[in-house]
Amino acid sequence: MNKIRLLWRMIRYNLQIVFSGKFIWFLLASVAFFLFVCTMMAFNNSNIRQHDIYDVLIIPGILLIFYPTVFGIQHDTDSRTIELIFGIPDYRFRVWLFRILIIYVFVFILLVLFGVAAVVLIEPIPAINFAFQLMFPLFFLGNMAFWVSTIIRNGNATAVVMVVLGILLSILSEILRNSYWNIMLNPFQVPSDLNQEIWMKIVLKNRIFLTVGGILFLLAGMLKLQKREKFI
Prior knowledge:
The protein has nine helices and no strands. It is mainly alpha-helical.
């Protein structure tokens, strides 16, 4: 019972740290964007398909993942908890792995809720499967943002870099539309010139690529955290 209570306190404490500050504005922006686009689609488009809803949901997902991964390091520096984190050997790794896990679980739950709202407002969709599929690009992009933040160590500068990278990735996604290298690949948009079996293989390779890439970015960020003198 004491272990459960301690775990709950750790989760609550890290939630307060990870999602404090300006996160509420990113949350409100994601909700506002979702409701606005859903309203427009409901009134202006009678032929809404599942892949359209996936494209709508990925933007709120990016907004939700953006703040905690980009500004996390700076938040620890500003609140001076960075010295405590680096003061205990290997503590920083456990803290940040735990926080990143909390971030993705929280975002997954919110995406499921967005999916349920989409069922009510637009079109019946498998909300949990949608949220699961969305977590692959978000895992990749979130860990990339975390890695960049460990290099730059400034939230605003990291945000600028990630916006530029986001624009470049958007351009590449158009070029690599049906390739498994496409980070923004929509698994629910089956090309007319491909059969279902080939498309499923492409989606599987894409998900493996995003998972491995996300893990590499996470490990690279953790390795950067070894250089204590650059953060204190």
